[in-house]
Amino acid sequence: MNYWLFKSDPTTYGIDHLARDQVTAWTWVRNYQARNFMRDEMHAGDRGFFCHSSCEEPGIVGIVEIARAAYPDATQFNRRSQYYDAGATKDHPRWFNVDLKFVGKIPLIGLPALRAHKSLAKMQILQRGSRLSITPVTPAEWECIMRLLEKK
Question: Which pLDDT score, from 0 to 100, does residue 147 have?
Fold first, then answer.
């Protein structure tokens, strides 16, 4: 099993939206590295943390599961979409998404709380300049954060 972290602005699509929808297509990713994570490395059943970003208190607020492995992101073909890509074709799609399933909300674990643990020092979300909306989480990082949750 692989582990992931998905970041989103809570006013655009937050954990409450996912709790309501239960499953959503994680569309609109237009970064090649994040796309490659979805397309090449994510599998149904993988788990992830849902992180709110660009807000007053950024941090991990939920747990998700990959419900469906990568498939072409339909927004790239929609001329009316802000995510339309004229270079993408149905035979050669450029962008992919996965379906995320809501597992549960958790008490906020803010970035300062994550930074306080030496075992999380290399976690990608904590690196200076990290802006990717999807990053891998190591099994050791996953276990550390799950232990933090047990203490809350």
Answer: 95
